[in-house]
Amino acid sequence: MAKIELEAFYPYPIEHVWTALTDSESLAQWLMENNFKAEVGYQCKFWAKPMMGWDGVARCVVLEIDKPHKLVWSQCGNDEGKDPFIITWTLKEEGKGTRISLVHDGIKGLQGILIKKVMGDGWKRMFDQKIPLVLEYAVKNGWHQFPKDRKLTPSDCGH
User: Tens digits of per-residue pLDDT, 90-147?
Assistant: First the structure.
């Protein structure tokens, strides 16, 4: 079984990083449109453009919350529950910022090689570009001031 593991440091308080991971509007900016709620047992969906045999819907269940340190959800594609991925986020205060780690576990089989490559590249782009952009924008403009009709771009933060 394969997994994706990533880690980053963001120069923002842990509460800000937690909000970026658990607020539906924030998640929509850096991940996908969704109906997420940070409640154990909550069944939510993330929507994206369908591709490569995937209908574009990630069906998730929130499994664990230890605010603001840990968030775990299961995630299934088309199978509706068979062999879900487990997505684990861990946050730790570090100096004047937050260390964040992601473990995307449960990647199986030959198809898993492609899934790991595609999803690994996507998670890395989110870690390196999208989450920092959401954090910077939210600190400057407020958490519920994101554009309603589009995703953030670097120019929204003066880059």
Answer: 999 999 999 999 999 998 887 778 888 888 999 999 999 999 999 999 999 999 899 9
Torsion of Cα atoms, 60 then 66 then 70 then 76, to 10°: -10
Q: Per CATH, which fold does 2-157 belong to?
A: Alpha-D-Glucose-1,6-Bisphosphate; Chain A, domain 4 (3.30.530)
Tokens 């473990």 sit at which residue? 103
Per the listing, tokens 């939210």 go with: 138
Model's pTM, two decimal places?
Answer: 0.93
Residue 51: predicted pLDDT: 80
